[in-house]
Amino acid sequence: MTASTHPAHPRRSDATRAAILRAARERFAADGYERATIRAIAADARIDPSMVMRYYGSKEGLFAAAAEFDLRLPDLTAVSSEQLGEVLVRHFLARWEGDETLVALLRAASTNPGATERMRGIFADQLTSAVATFGTDPALTARRAGLVASQILGLALTRYIVRLPPMVDMTPEELVSWTAPTLQRYLTGLPQT
Amino acid sequence: MTASTHPAHPRRSDATRAAILRAARERFAADGYERATIRAIAADARIDPSMVMRYYGSKEGLFAAAAEFDLRLPDLTAVSSEQLGEVLVRHFLARWEGDETLVALLRAASTNPGATERMRGIFADQLTSAVATFGTDPALTARRAGLVASQILGLALTRYIVRLPPMVDMTPEELVSWTAPTLQRYLTGLPQT
DNA sequence: GTTGTGTGTCAACAGCCGTTGGCATACGGT
DNA sequence: ACCGTATGCCAACGGCTGTTGACACACAAC
């Protein structure tokens, strides 16, 4: 976003901006929105707190920048219909383990209204539209996506936030093999009663 | 706890204590741990903030009292083994809809370490021991309980915290019919791979 | 070299927070 | 009627927070 838009004028402060963003993501992920203070984030980035204000306007603005996120869902039309569940869990797990942005967003979503809405938007928009790509009953796609979100977010909550021992100890592959059938049924199973 | 232990000496302040606790649960459920201020809770209870300190010692103490919770899981040995999932979801949904304590605990668990540990304890102890009552492979009971927790907590997170529209709109019975088979498989299904 | 602009530091403000101690009042036992 | 105790309010403290404005320095353009 920063360097790519103005390649001729790379700002000297781009490194600082990036350092702030990285520290912010760490703190938000570890402490949640209200406990993560601008002073602590600035200290992590070895910079004065006022710089954060200058570059991101406010704490809300900083969080908005730090929680920018794209699920990068794969093209589900290219997946055989009986493997949808497995592909989805595997993708989400990889996305979660490799990027703390989602953990930051999830932690903050419980207390910060803005974060809640962003989380809701991500899963309502990106996931629902992905589910809609393969043709099922349009009236059902929304709740199929909602149910998938409930299991995916429950997985993340118990593994990364609450850290329930069995959920932490299981390997990604074990988690996939247990939860893939669940998602598969939510996605393609017959509507229940 | 208060009146029952000393039935001969009902404190005159029991009503105040209860009012504080009720207001605290509401605020913690609505705002989370850090945004729920003692001043706001005291105002809701129409009382001075210092009273909260006198009766509960500190904000942590107040939260500990407000988040006291028992899942009251039914005796699963009395349930036919193919109905375990349905019974469990129905019980949890009823417990969640009727008592905001769990929502308060869940909201706080994302940011407050004490709340996280309590949540972990509740689901690790109460749920695991309930799952252990009907005889399955003891080596698997912990992860079965963990998986059940992931779907149950994911349900609560998407319905009561993030408020994903499809998860909010579904009736409890619809939720039961969709998720009961999931829990059933986590509880009694064959170990995957 | 001068000027202008971007980058960074420092000190401080106002506000809210949890928490404390003192003081008034009402109650219950004798 | 008296006294100890419980209950409640009030004012204030110290600390931390997001945020702001003034000031110092570095760099690029001309």
Task: Please explain how this structure is put together.
Two copies of one chain form a homodimer. Chain A contains eleven helices and no strands. In chain A, α2 packs across α5 (59-66). Helices cover 70% and strands 0% of the residues of chain A. Mean pLDDT of chain A is 91; it is low at 1-8. Chain A is mainly alpha-helical and 193 residues long. The radius of gyration of chain A is 19 Å and the shape is elongated. Chain A has helices at 2-5, 14-31, 38-44, 49-56, 59-66, 84-98, 101-109, 113-133, 138-161, 165-169, 172-188. Chain A binds a DNA duplex (30 and 30 nucleotides) through α4.
List the helices and strands and how they pair.
Two copies of one chain form a homodimer.
Chain A: H1 2-5, H2 14-31, H3 38-44, H4 49-56, H5 59-66, H6 84-98, H7 101-109, H8 113-133, H9 138-161, H10 165-169, H11 172-188
Chain A binds a DNA duplex (30 and 30 nucleotides) through helix 4.
Provide a compact summary of the structure.
The structure is a homodimer of 193-residue chains. With 193 residues, chain A is mostly helical. In chain A, 70% of the residues lie in helices and 0% in strands.
Query: How many strand elements of chain A?
Result: 0
| Helix and strand sequence of chain A | HHHHHHHHHHH
Q: What percent of the residues of chain A sit in helical stretches (DSSP H or I)?
A: over 70%
Uncertain residue segments of chain A: 1-8
What is the residue-averaged pLDDT of chain A? 91
The share of residues in extended strands of chain A comes to: under 5%
Q: Please give the radius of gyration of chain A in angstroms.
A: 19 Å
Distance between the termini of chain A: 48 Å
What structural category do the secondary elements of chain A indicate?
mainly alpha
Task: Write down the overall geometry of chain A.
Answer: elongated
* Oligomer category: homodimer
**Greatest interface (CB-CB under 8 A), with counts per chain:** A-B, 50 and 50 residues
Profile the largest sheet of chain A.
none
Given the structure, what is the number of helices of chain A? Answer: 11
